Amino acid sequence: xxxxxxxxxxxxxxxxxxxxxxxxxxxxxxxxxxxxxxxxxxxxxxxxxxxxxxxxxxxxxxxxxxxxxxxxxxxxxxxxxxxxxxxxxxxxxxxxxxxxxxxxxxxxxxxxxxxxxxxxxxxxxxxxxxxxxxxxxxxxxxxxxxxxxxxxxxxxxxxxxxxxxxxxxxxxxxxxxxxxxxxxxxxxxxxxxxxxxxxxxxxxxxxxxxxxxxxxxxxxxxxxxxxxxxxxxxxxxxxxxxxxxxxxxxxxxxxxxxxxxxxxxxxxxxxxxxxxxxxxxxxxxxxxxxxxxxxxxxxxxxxxxxxxxxxxxxxxxxxxxxxxxxxxxxxxxxxxxxxxxxxxxxxxxxxxxxxxxxxxxxxxxxxxxxxxxxxxxxxxxxx
Length: 383
Ligand SMILES: Cc1cc2nc3c(=O)[nH]c(=O)nc-3n(C[C@H](O)[C@H](O)[C@H](O)COP(=O)(O)OP(=O)(O)OC[C@H]3O[C@@H](n4cnc5c(N)ncnc54)[C@H](O)[C@@H]3O)c2cc1C
Hints:
The chain is α+β, with helices and mostly antiparallel strands. The chain contains ten helices and ten strands. The strands form three sheets. Strands 1-4-5-8 form a four-stranded mixed sheet, with helices on one face. A four-stranded antiparallel sheet has the order 2-3-7-6, with no helix packed on it.
């Protein structure tokens, strides 16, 4: 497939490196991790060895200082091999970004280098059983008690839950202040009072270890506050929203590319009555629709990322649009891939049914398509 989105030589090299790691070290285990639900530790270790988690961390903090366009290319290549690994990587990188933008010198020293090498894994915990995609509806409470916050509440469906070493957790520090009463705390996995539910038995993205988190009088040192008290949503805005949505969109693009590749291969190799099925116009139409869907989402993602890199104030809205378009396109493309493969596409022996199941989850996580449609329309209407 053409490489059309690498504006600089260095970005091209980073993409090539990721492609090689994804093909040689990650793809091999993707089907097994999907079947077993096992967390892809080895894949994460390979990404860490290559320094890829430091991609979007500034050079001043020891990272590569790349922008969203390069980040999207890397996530895309990982997702072409294994979407679960790409989602774990995205959550991890976004957690590291939050520490970079709002963490104290001490927190950065303690976590950033280890996270850039994946010796420590990070995750994001915003969603709660009764909040849906609405971060403003969270109720997990953190009350200041001397040099600690005492945290009570729960989080739901957290990627890398129980596997990550460190969690960026959105909490309510002042219930009277609405959006200004929320803060982000860094909470270590072994903190007394923090426990995890069992992994969700999900349809797709099966090895991402989505778990519930429970906080019961969980005492978190005050120095683990990211940014200032009341700046929780700003921290989320500068990390999860400002960067994570580009990662999410890129996962969908990577899945769609893998589905296109598998379908083209199958249409050439599968013969019926001595002819490859690709000679039939009906199959050609499906393949061409898939190519157009995948390539237009890729182009839209990269132009959105470039716009956001040039003007970070526009990052949220462009990221919402890119994620909405790419995630819905990937569902359509993977659905068609099953059709191109016929009964084989419905079998676990072939890859495309996994791609479809993985693609489906991307329309739900971070923010559902319905929320994104509303956000895009409200921005256009000025309401
Ligand atoms: C694979 C995966 C990974 C995830 N990883 C993480 C993670 O790492 N960290 C984290 O914090 N969360 C994570 N989540 C949780 C995710 O953010 C939520 O699932 C998502 O926000 C939707 O919330 P919900 O599941 O409660 O759906 P609900 O909010 O119950 O929504 C159900 C339906 O109602 C619609 N709906 C609800 N409210 C409105 C409204 N106001 N207007 C219009 N439609 C509405 C929704 O669009 C949806 O169609 C993950 C989810 C998935 C699927």
